[in-house]
Amino acid sequence: MRHNLQQQFTMLQEQYVAMADAMAPVRHSKSELLIPSLKKARHDLLLGLSDPSSKLRYAAGALLVLVVAIAIDQVSAWRFSLRRLGLPVVSPPKGVHQFDHKAILSEEARKHPDSPYLITYSRFEYVVFPASGWDEIKRIPPSKASALLYFTHVYFRGWRLLGSNTSAVHKSIGVDLTRAVPVRVHAHQESACLAYDSALEQYTEWKSFSMYFSLQAIIAATKARGLVGPELGNNKGWVMAVQAFPWL
User: Fold this and answer.
1) pTM for this structure?
2) Which residues span the domain enclosing 95?
3) Among candidates 77, 107, 109, which has minimal Cα distance to 92?
4) How confident is the model at residue 20 (pLDDT cuts 50, 70, 90)?
5) Which candidate, 70, 52, 51, 73, places its Cα nearest to that of 62?
């Protein structure tokens, strides 16, 4: 019986990991992943009830193990949460004003002029430091605060089809960029200016825009010079095609 319980636990653990990796791009929280896991356990339990046998005991034991494992995972996640630092946590207002980021940041800067605070967006935690700490922050070494490692963790977690993102890969990319970028600086500057003006245009007042699609449009138009040339690359039809097929 112990061997069967171990097999059930291993199977549930593999199913949970596979589900978490498959749904990682959707950025679901642990509690949201718990719901389909419980539905799967309920389905297995109903199957066991339809055939009263030892399967029912195995399903009940596996469900108990799954609940305990998720509880341990939640406690472990809390250990790595930035909330443990005791910083003030910003709660965006409900309704249409929850996306007014300029007003939210301005209000929190007024409340905390000389101290950092914590803000959450899309289930990620960010520490916002006061402007007075900029000189100190930019001197932090990459071993303690690295934007490269952060974006690698956020956007490539669980994706290993093209190999691991190791420091050797990062260094190789850095060497290639160092060799290639200087001879194309002026051309890339011109492409970046055209892409920026095309994606964001010129406004004299505050105007909100979609960060994801705007950045995607800027990147697609900037990279187009080396792929299809500036004339087609700055065409809105090309940019929309690249946005529709991000792996192109």
Assistant:
1) 0.40
2) 84-139
3) 107
4) low
5) 70
End residue of a domain, out of 32, 62, 80:
80
Q: Is residue 118 part of a domain?
A: yes
**160 in a structural domain:** no
pLDDT tens digit sequence for 188-232: 787 788 888 877 877 778 878 788 788 888 888 877 766 777 777
Amino acid identity for residue 138 in this structure: K
